[in-house]
Specification:
There is one protein chain. With 176 residues, this protein is of the alpha/beta class. The protein is built from 6 helices and 11 strands. The strands form 2 sheets. Strands 1, 2, 3, 4, 5 and 11 form a 6-stranded mixed β-sheet that branches. A hairpin with a 3-residue loop joins β3 and β4. The protein is elongated and about 55 Å long.
Length: 176
């Protein structure tokens, strides 16, 4: 069975996949809407979607899909993941931008302004997508997971305050 989650590799959704479904086939998606679409079209796919973050609140991309009248899926399980956020990149001095998922940017926007006011904040589909971009262009840094720094061979430049930062994920599947 395939498990769809927000990718690319190194995302917090992938971390949930590795902790809970390591014997299944990974099926990373570009955005949350694609996860729902893949499950709706195939009986052999389940999905991992972020629902709520303790710092930020609801993940509206997921909530919009869950309340859609054509939802026709069921919530199979709930998983909470402790989130540790790192400032990741190749070189802090030459970087002009910091990218991440909107949840992390909104959570840490004041911290970033106070500690790195020169960085322009840019939202992307996932924390791991931000890290992938940072690995390809030294003008970019990312807010992401330690796993992402390892996958994309990036340096951890700073550790952000993450005490009590928890994201709730739903495991979803097609109604039987």
């Amino acid at each position: 069975m395939k498990v769809a989650y927000l990718g690319p590799n190194g995302s917090f959704s992938e971390i949930v996949f590795l902790q809970r479904f390591k014997n299944y086939i990974p099926y990373p998606q570009k955005n949350i809407k694609d996860i729902f679409e893949k499950i709706r079209k195939n009986n052999d796919i389940i999905g991992i979607v972020p629902v709520e973050n303790s710092f930020f609140g609801n993940i509206y991309e997921t909530i919009d899909e869950l309340i859609d009248p054509s939802f026709n899926l069921e919530i199979l399980e709930e998983i909470n993941l402790k989130i540790n956020i790192y400032l990741i990149g190749n070189n802090l001095l030459n970087s002009k931008y910091v990218q991440s998922h909107v949840v992390q940017l909104n959570t840490y926007k004041d911290w970033l302004k106070n500690n790195y006011p020169h960085l322009i904040q840019i939202s992307v589909n996932s924390t791991s997508e931000a890290c992938r971009c940072a690995s390809e262009d030294n003008n970019y840094l990312a807010l992401g997971s330690k796993r992402s720094s390892e996958i994309y061979k990036l340096n951890i430049l700073d550790i952000l305050p993450s005490e009590n930062n928890i994201t709730q994920f739903f495991i979803i599947g097609k109604l039987k």
